[in-house]
Amino acid sequence: MQGKIESQPAQPAAAQIEINQNGTFPPAYITEAGGNQTNSIQIIQQGQNQFVELIPPPPVPQQRKAQRKSQPKAKVLPPDLNIEGPSSNKAYKIALVDAQLTVSPQALGFLPSNYWLNLDSTFGDLVTKFFQRKNNANCRFPHKLYNALSIVEQDPKMYNLLGVKWITDTVFKVDKLLFGRVLGISSIDGGLFHQQGNFPSHGFCEVSGQELEQLKTNYNLTDIDQDRVRLMHHPDGLFQKSSNEDDVNRCKWGNTQ
Description:
By secondary structure, the chain is α+β, with helices and mostly antiparallel strands. The protein contains nine helices and eight strands.
């Protein structure tokens, strides 16, 4: 049975159309009733009135997706630091995304001096954009070491994240797991202490056993095991707490004893 369009006095602009028994519209059967464009037609099929929309609604404009700022991620997480406490990998990962944990590089005298703007930096940005960048003229290993020591000198709690700390004006201690983690070094012993590692190749060496015993009389050095935690210095005196930028810049690759 075929249904037929009935004209509706209240809707003079409705289109007239016949539909098949299966409810489909035959081609070329649509005619306009009046001169105005119709938005819908009214059909009668099996005694029921139905309205069919002819013109689709305008497309909804797509909203631009807000670009998310990528968050700093941990590059190296030493298994020995899968522990609880302020130096743990868990605490380190939290610190990387903590927007309130900031550092003022210029105020701390970061090196090289012409590289840093008078702007605060989050700890996470400092790690990914400076400490873990490949060594170059603006972020050489002595710069990274000096700046890390400067942060801890101002805030001793940051030792748990950076792993270096001045003991005297010329001697500093290094926790190889903490410092290697913040530098993103996967092979920590080789990257820091072997012959071609960062410390020996820039002229740094460990204090002797005799010097260590002398220092123990004045400083709490119970954590020094000469493996994970070591005391380091620069025998040429180029790297000290009071060193100027020229002195630190002289600690160059291959400057070994």
